[in-house]
Specification:
This protein is mainly alpha-helical and 407 residues long. The chain is 58% helix and 5% strand. It has two domains: 216 residues, no CATH class; 89 residues, Periplasmic binding protein-like II (D-Maltodextrin-Binding Protein, domain 2). Strand 3 and strand 4 form a beta hairpin. The protein is elongated.
């Protein structure tokens, strides 16, 4: 709106107005009689360097104030992802080796013969309940009340019947029972074992599940905030004709874009700081590695990459509802397929291949490497370069669909 024209209409919340000191006169109204309109001629309608900085500061300040006043935006961008971190961190902070429950039908010598310290160690991972009715025990296994049924036939063969509904527990119970059988076979020979296994994790013993949860949930939070903010902002500004006003005002396109990117990057860095501070509390125990600071430039590159997706969504969508729906279709599947909530180690090979083309997968993996696994520049630089290249390509595509005004 013109800076020298009085208006009774207040700017809508969430839509910054052009700086008053640099706004042109109303279209068609000359500065004086017989003079040309005050709208600058082509090629001269952009401010000098100082004016560009002033416009950038004004637009950024308005965007920040608007964001802080929008309680729903604050909740979904900052508090909602933090709630997921608190929830998963609380659920898994005491996670240990999966404990399985099996039903023993009849006499099973390999289990009955385990005594003393060996029995104590076995009870830590296996709970054995003796059953007399095989059919009833199998029904409990099918329902999930028990993880497996074990019995021994007349030839001495140990028969294990398990449910494949839970692949983790199925693998655990097979491993435990197989270990018990092998130890029984070795004891029957009366000879000491020829080989022994000593295992240890490569990380410090203080490593907890929060080490893996924090990078994944942080990546999801950054992707969600950047995509939705860029898409909804673009659609809202176009619908309220703010894009047209900014285009006519002596404000460079660079100032508009830089202010929007700057606010989104600042929001992402605040999200990162909150996540790290909360996860590092004694309640969760996140341990940062020496190169954790590399997370900062990766978060910046990731924010730019996901903003390009939001720009594409906002260029295609014509309403806020359409933009929200398209963003959900993109962000939600990408979050699950990128390992933000759970690892993809057990996923089918084709699914892991699909996840490799998603920017969030690379951001989560690289952030996990430098934040909690001791990774360095070799892990961060390729990811940052790939994210920026992805942003350039998607932005170029979005520009083909971009329009300053509603169709």
């Amino acid at each position: 709106m013109s800076g020298d024209q009085t208006s009774t209409e207040a700017p809508a919340e969430g839509t910054p107005s052009a700086p008053a000191e640099s706004a042109p006169a109303h279209e068609g109204v000359p500065a004086q009689a017989g003079a040309r309109p005050r709208r600058p001629a082509p090629g001269t309608d952009r401010p000098a360097a100082g004016g560009g900085v002033s416009a950038f500061r004004s637009l950024s300040r308005v965007m920040i104030v608007t964001f802080l006043r929008d309680r729903s935006a604050l909740f979904f961008v900052v508090l909602f992802p933090l709630m997921f971190l608190l929830l998963f961190g609380t659920l898994f902070k005491s996670a240990t080796t999966a404990h399985v429950k099996v039903a023993q039908v009849g006499s099973v010598a390999v289990l009955d013969s385990v005594q003393g310290q060996a029995r104590t160690e076995l009870d830590k991972v296996l709970t054995v309940s003796k059953e007399t009715d095989e059919a009833a025990a199998l029904a409990k296994v099918r329902k999930g009340d028990l993880d497996a049924l074990v019995e021994q036939d007349g030839s001495g063969t140990v028969v294990l019947r398990f449910s494949a509904a839970d692949q983790v527990r199925a693998g655990t119970v097979q491993g435990v029972i197989n270990s018990v059988v092998q130890q029984a076979n070795q004891a029957a020979t009366g000879k000491p074992p020829a080989y022994t296994l000593k295992s240890a994790q490569v990380e410090d013993q203080s490593v907890k599940p929060i080490q893996y949860l924090t990078p994944g949930l942080l990546g999801w939070a950054i992707a969600t905030g950047a995509v939705f903010s860029a898409a909804l902002t673009l659609v809202t500004w176009r619908r309220k004709r703010l894009l047209r006003r900014l285009r006519l005002a002596p404000v460079s396109v660079g100032s508009i874009v830089a202010s929007r990117v700057g606010v989104s990057v600042l929001t992402a860095l605040i999200q990162t700081a909150i996540f790290v501070l909360v996860a590092s509390t004694p309640a969760f125990g996140l341990k940062l590695t020496g190169n954790w600071w590399l997370t900062i430039p990766m978060v910046i590159c990731g924010t730019i990459a996901f903003m390009s997706i939001g720009l594409l969504v906002g260029s295609i969508a014509k309403t806020e509802e359409a933009a929200n729906g398209l963003a959900q279709i993109i962000v939600l599947p990408m979050s699950f397929l990128s390992g933000s909530f759970f690892p993809l180690d057990g996923a089918p090979s084709w699914l892991r291949t699909v996840s490799e083309v998603m920017p969030l997968r690379h951001l989560v993996t690289a952030t996990q490497s430098v934040l909690t696994r001791g990774g360095g520049l070799g892990d961060a630089l390729p990811t940052m370069g790939g994210l920026l290249l992805f942003a350039a390509v998607v932005t170029a595509i979005a520009w083909r669909f971009f329009d300053w005004d509603e169709a």
